[in-house]
Amino acid sequence: MRGRLRVYLGAAPGVGKTYAMLGEGRRGLERGRDVVVGFVETHGRPRTATLLEGMEIIPRRILVHRGATFTELDVDALIERAPKVALIDELAHTNVPGSKNAKRWQDIDEILDAGINVISTVNIQHLESVNDVVEQITGIPQRETVPDEVVRRATQIELVDMSPEALRRRMAHGNVYAPEKVDAALSNYFRVGNLTALRELALLWVAGKVDDQLDRYRTDHGIAGTWEARERVVVALTGGPEGETLVRRAVRIAARTKGADVLAVHVTSADGLAGGDPANLARQRNLVESMGGSYHQVVGNDIPQALLDFARGVNATQLVLGASRRGRFAQVLSRGVGVETTARSGTIDVHLVTHEEAKQGRKRPKRSGAALNKKRRLSGWAVAVAGMPLLTVALLPFRDVISLPSEILLFLCLVVGVALIGGMWPAMVAAVGGSLLLNWFFTPPVHTWTIADPENFLALVVFVLVAAAVSTIVDLAARRTREAARARADAEALSTLAGHVLRGEAALPSLLGRLRETFGLDSVTLLERLAEPTPDDQAEPRAWRIIATSGAKPCTEPAMADTDVQINDRLVLAARGRLLDASDRRVLEAFAAEAAVALRQERLQREAEQAKPLAEADKMRTALLAAVSHDLRTPLAAAKAAVESLRSHDVIWTPEDRDELLATADESLDRLDRLVENLLDMSRLQAGVLGLSLQPVALEEVIPRAIDDLGPMRDRIEGNVPFALPEIQADPALLERVLVNLMANAVRYSPPGHDVLINGSRHDDEVEIRVVDRGPGIPPEDYERVFLPFQRLGDRDNGTGVGLGLALSRGLTEAMGGTLEPEETPGGGLTMTVRMPIS
C-alpha cells in the first residue's frame, strides 16, 4: 500500500516548518512509532538541532560534483530501512547531478511507493503556480519549484503561519540567519510588504486545498445541501442580451466578500427549448473570464433542476438569474425558470435581476412542432378528451346552418391542434372520436350510426385519413426536432471542450473536470494499463495506473465505473456517478478520443524537451569540429612558421627579426590558449558542469583586474564605477572573464579616438555593469544572433576568432544568476549591460 504524505507549508523561510516537522516526529517516537530522519537541514539553528538529538538519522549519500563534495538523501538506504515514518526536509530541493532523481519530490514519491509515510516541508514561493507572482512581489526568482499537484496529493497539508512582525523579530534575534546576513535580509526579501503578500498567497492556496477536501467529504458522505464555508456566486446565462448585465451584477455581489468566486453556467437543454445566441454566449464568456470568473456548460432537460444541481455541486451560496423575458400570458400558463428555481432553491439565495429585456417575450424561431416531453403529451391528451365534446356542444345549435363539410373541417382543425401539442397518439384518438361524434350528431340520419349519403361516408373516411396523416407527420417532425436539439447540445458540449484545449487549458485533470461538470458525474478518471491485457484485469487495481482524475473517489480499475470507454488497448476512460444513456455515451467516446490525443501530445512534448539538449549537444560537437578544423589551424600555422624560421640555419636573423618572430609565435600561442579555454568553457556550459564559486564580490576589485588583463587595449578603456555600490553575488574569476570579453569586443569595433566606457549603477536588487562603445552597432533584430556560438555577425573576418566571446559571456553570466543584454548606445554604438543580483 502506498504511503501517506504530510506537508508543512510556510509563507517564507524561518516560520518554523522544520521545527514543526521535527516536533511531530518526536511526538510519534513518544507514541512508539518507528520514525527516522531521512534528511533535515538545520541551517545552523540551535533549537532545530536540539530536536534532532536522540533521533535515528539515515546517513546521507555523498556526491562529488565540479570538484566539490555534497550530501543528498539516500533513497535506497531509507527504503531498505523501511521505517513507518520518514522526515524529509525541503520538498522542492533540486538534487546534485548524479543523484538518483533530479528533484527531491521525486525521491519522496519513490519512498511513498515503497509504503513509507513521509512528512516534508515546503515554502509557498516554491510552488510552480505562484512562482511568477512571488518573483513580481519580491523581485527575486525562485529557481527551485515543485508542481502544485505533488503537494495537492498530500493526505494532509498544515500551514505554519507567523505574522510578518513576529518573523522579522525572529530574524533580528538571529534565530533564522547568521548575524552578518540579518540586515541585508530584513531590507530586501523580508520586508513587511513582501511577507504580508506571501502570507496571503499561502492562506489562499491552502484555502483552495481545503475546498477540494470539503468537496470530497461532501461527495463521500452524500451531502447535497449547501455549506456556506465560502461565498460562491453562480450566474445563469441563457445567451440572451441580458447576460452581460447579470455577469456584472454577480461580480458586484461577489466583490462584497473577500475571496468569493463567480461561476457562469449555461444549460443546454436536450429538448431544444433553451437555446441561446452563440455570439452572445461567446461575448458573455469572455466577459466573465476577464473579470476573474469561470464559465461552465451543462446538459439538462429540467433547466431549474440542472441549475440547482450545478450550484449545489460547486457548493454555491448565491444564484443570480435574469427576470423572465416571457410575456404575461406565458407566465400565467407556466411559472417560469426564475420562479421555479426560487421555489426549489432551499438554502441557496436566489437573486432575480431585472433588465431591459424583461417581459419583452422570447425572440426565438417559430417551431412547427413540439418536443414529445411528458408535459406536452399530457396536454395533448387533455385537449383531445375535452376538446372534442366541447366543440360538439358548440356546433349543435348551428347544425342546420353549417354544412357537414364545414363541420368536418372544424373537427380537422382541432385534430391538427392536438397533433401539434401532443403528437400522434392523442391526435389519432381525437380523429377516431371526432369521426364518431360527426357521425352521431351531424351526419344524416342523426343519432344513428348509419350514413344515408355515400358522399358523407367518403368525407368521414377522408377526415380520418387526413387526421392520421397529419398526426404522423407532426409526430415525426417533433421527434426530428428533439434529435436535432440533442445533437446540438452534444455539439455545444464538444465545442466547449475543444475550445478548452485551444485556449491552452489542455491539462488532463482540468479537461476531465469540464467533462464531469457537463454530465453531472461524481468522478472521471483516465486509466492506463500497466501490462499486457488479461481476461480478468478489469477488476484488478494493480493492473492499472491513474493518469489523471477529477472528482472524488476515482476509479482504480474499469470495473468500478458506471460507464467506461475503451480508448485503445492501454487507455480507458472511467466515469462514476450515473449510467449515461446512448447519446451521452457517444459524446463521452468522442471526448475520450480527444483526451487520448491530449495525453499523447503531453508525452510527445516531454520527449521533445528531453531530446532538445541532445540536439544542442550534437550541434555544439559539430561546431567544435568545424572550429578545430579551421580556426585552430591559423594560430598553429603562424606559431609553427615562426619557430621553424628561428630554427633555420640558412638565414641569419637580426635581433629585431628574431624578436618579431618570437612575438608572432607568442601572440599566436596566446590566441590559441584563449581559443582552447573558450572552447572548453563553452563545452562545460553546454554539459552543465562548469565549476562555480559564488561569493560576495566588490566591483571596485574586479573591474581594475579585468582592465589590466586587456594588455595594450587597456589604454582605450575609461572606467566610471562608484565605490558606494553594494557587493554582488558572483564568481570573481568568471565575472572577470565576462568583462574582459565584453571590453575586448567593444575595443575591437570602436573607431580610433573613441574610448570604451565601463560604468556601474544600482537598480532595485541588482547592480548593472555597462560596457559602452561608439562603433557601428548592430540592428535590433540581430541582438540575439550575436550570442549564438560560432557566430560572427556578417562572417567578414575569419581572423577575429570563432565567435565564442559573446556566447560564452552570456552563458557565464546566466550561470552566475545574472543576465546579459545588448542595447543601442545613444548617438550610435552598442552597450552591453550585465545585471547581477546584490549579495
Automatic annotation (TrEMBL):
Enzyme class of the recorded protein, top EC level: transferase
Family annotation (InterPro entries): HATPase_C_sf, HATPase_dom, His_kinase_dom, HisK_dim/P_dom, HisK_dim/P_sf, Histidine_kinase_KdpD, KdpD_sf, KdpD_TM
KW Nucleotide-binding (keyword) present: yes
Keywords: ATP-binding, Kinase, Membrane, Nucleotide-binding, Phosphoprotein, Transferase, Transmembrane, Transmembrane helix, Two-component regulatory system
Name of the protein in question: histidine kinase
Subcellular location per the Swiss-Prot or TrEMBL entry: Cell membrane; Membrane
PROSITE patterns from the UniProt entry: HIS_KIN
Signal sequence annotation: none
Annotated source species: Nonomuraea diastatica
Principal location: membrane
